[in-house]
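go over this record:
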Amino acid sequence: MNEFLLTLIAYLIGSVPTAVWVSQRFFSIDIRDYGSGNAGATNVYRVLGPKWGTLVMIGDMLKGVLAVQLVFLLPDYEPEGMAFQNLQTLLGLAAVIGHIFPIWADFRGGKGVATIFGMVLGISPLTAVGCVSIFSLVLYLTRFVSLSSILASISFPVFILVVFNVENPLYRVFAITVALLVLLTHQKNIGRLLKGKEGKLPILKGRDRRREQRNKTR
């Protein structure tokens, strides 16, 4: 088994359209025809509920985790070597591309954030913890999943280049590319955020209502 074959397998793993298959199997709909039209966990959460959204998110993350683990099928790669990490990066990127352009779902997939996170979790757990902390904090403060994803993705190269100062040049380039890719796939969300039309995740509504009431009484 060579690198090319593993990369192809990683792409096929990433192509598993978790959101589409869950919506078709349990609700007899195509999630891409509802809500934002995106085949991702956030849209499933809004349309089908938190249980199914969480299930899809875990599935999409696992695709990234599994893809980078394929490197262990090639015993010639030393786990601590730069070539090992380079191949992991390539495999993870193939899975992300598969998620965005899934061969099993007419090449109409999601935005890849959960799969990217799963990939980073498999390669650099501490970086993943940092990114998810940023995501969770922004989500708690704003309830905007898109803004949380964007800021978490921007923090990724900051962790790699500044906080942990990773020396691997390919991984540094990848971190920057991920941030740019997320910005590119969230252009519509950015537009809605700027116009004040972006939908919020239906959590912490009570907190926000109390906050609005306090502002009105001032």
Observations:
- The chain has a mean pLDDT of 90.
- The chain has one domain: 3-207.
- The two ends are 68 Å apart (CA to CA).
- Residues 3-207 form one domain.
